[in-house]
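Input.
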Amino acid sequence: MSREGTGLPRGGTGGTSSGPRDYGATSSSAVTTMASSTDASNFGGFSPTEFISLSESIAANTIFVKQSWQFLEKANRTIGTPKDNQTLRDKVHDIQTGTNQRISTTSKDLQRLTVVVRRGDKQQKLQVEKLTSDFTHVVQMYSKSQQVIAAKMKQVLLVNASQQDDMHRDMIGFGDGSSATGGSQQQQQEQHLRQQQIQRDLQFEQDMLLEREQRVRQIEADVLDVRQIMQELSSITNQQSEVIDTIENTIEHAVSNVESGHTELEKAVEYQNRYRRKVIILLLIAVILGMIITGIIVSRLKN
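Output.
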């Protein structure tokens, strides 16, 4: 099967890996270490540089996982057809190995970003929540495709193995039908050759069983890696939900305090207006009484 038209995401090509490889995961460990030592002291523990670096890394890896999911969906339509071959299966394994590594790296970046954004504002916390939601959704689709293609690959592998075993037994049975005529020495030689052939056949079948078991374990291992990551993502989502709920409660409490303060101010203004009216009324009464008393005094003096 040719490599064109497989929808292979960049950074995931090549055969089966023999050791740890760099799949182009945009891990920000070097940048975050420098950022935390420079910006944290200036922003009270919050590093804008680290926040931006981690956010861009998570967004890029989310796109990569989505491309891997699309490749698995396309490969799933090829498994079990005449176009199916070992090259395609090796490529599927290589894609899953690289993508699982990206998912593991991104999960750690999300955990770090959740810690970094604790001193950020509400908009930044909501941005982290969206990054986590998008990444979790893509990983869920990718995990489902992994499970489907793993089940299909194991089924096709077992069917092909059964057909090969039947053909091999037919060939052995055909070889056992050789003529038994001739001298005793020739019969002993033929019997010895048949015993050697049976031993080779048994060894061949044992090697085939070991190879099939190894392939099945490899297929299952590619799926188990992502299931463990999903538990970590669920924990991160719960932590972020608690943070967002705390922010909402804080905002609601602040709004309630503002409304209560506004009500108290209105009451204070009303009390002040009442006090002023009372003072004005008392002054008017005092002026009127003063005028009456003055009039009485003046009239008596004249008399």
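The helical segments are 29-38, 48-76, 86-116, 122-175, 184-302.
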